[in-house]
């Protein structure tokens, strides 16, 4: 019931699919990456409609994204790994939020958990939603009116309301994968950023 109430609170802030007042930025890896998309690891390449690679790296979207948006993606790792979505200021210089879908043990959290960080501080942790090797996970984050939600395969994880949000009206988005080994395989697919337009 609690999860349902939280969703009802956010539902009016996120437009329904296909509504004329929304814009979708879609990266389905059907073509080679072009600006504003880029990767930081040279082994990460588009193959057969997926982004495949090995070892740590990031998929970056250099265009600014409005403060209220929904981001979804699919991820699969060959070994234990973390998938993080980081929000930076519009210039991409200051790290503001991290949405961490953990698959590796974290010593501070004493376990494998999903969590939200504001700058470098943990603000919400959920032990029920985490990822593991060999399975494709549908990951989602929502940000609306300073409310932040994370979902793993449709299950609500950490939820955080920022009572003292930054002044930023637009963000830069980076999707990072942190692997245990430099040769660990990973796959990203179906990245979509949805936001309202005026």
Chart the SSEs and their pairings:
Blueprint: H1 2-10, E1 22-27, E2 37-39, E3 45-47, E4 50-54, E5 57-66, E6 69-77, E7 81-88, E8 95-101, E9 114-118, E10 121-126, E11 137-144, E12 147-152, E13 155-161, E14 170-179, E15 185-196
Antiparallel strand pairs: 1-15, 2-5, 3-4, 4-15, 5-14, 6-11, 6-15, 7-8, 7-14, 8-9, 9-10, 11-12, 12-13
User: Could you tell me the number of beta strands?
Assistant: 15
CATH class: Mainly Beta
Radius of gyration: 16 Å
Task: Encode the helix/strand succession as letters.
Answer: HEEEEEEEEEEEEEEE
> What is the number of domains?
1
| Most strands sheet | 8 strands, antiparallel
* Portion of residues within helices: under 10%
Low-confidence stretches: 1-16
CATH topology: Jelly Rolls
Rough shape? Answer: globular
Treating each run of at least 4 consecutive H or I residues as one helix, how many helices? 1
Distance between the termini: 33 Å
């Amino acid at each position: 019931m609690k999860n349902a109430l939280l969703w009802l609170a956010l539902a009016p802030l996120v437009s329904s699919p296909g509504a004329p007042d929304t814009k979708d930025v879609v990266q389905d890896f059907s073509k080679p990456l072009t600006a504003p998309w880029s990767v930081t690891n040279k082994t990460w390449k588009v193959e057969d409609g997926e982004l495949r690679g090995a070892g740590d790296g990031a998929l970056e979207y250099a265009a600014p994204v409005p403060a209220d948006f929904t981001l979804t993606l699919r991820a699969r790792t060959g070994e234990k790994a973390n998938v993080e979505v980081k929000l930076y200021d519009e210039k991409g210089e200051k790290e503001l939020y991290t949405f961490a879908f953990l698959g590796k043990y974290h010593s501070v959290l004493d376990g494998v958990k999903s969590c939200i960080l504001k700058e470098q501080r943990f603000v919400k942790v959920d032990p029920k939603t985490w990822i593991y090797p060999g399975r494709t996970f549908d990951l989602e984050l929502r940000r609306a009116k300073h409310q932040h939600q994370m979902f793993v395969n449709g299950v609500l994880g950490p939820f955080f309301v920022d009572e003292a949000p930054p002044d930023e009206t637009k963000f830069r988005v980076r999707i990072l994968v942190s692997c245990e080994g430099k040769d660990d395989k990973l796959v990203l697919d179906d990245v979509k950023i949805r936001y309202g337009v005026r």
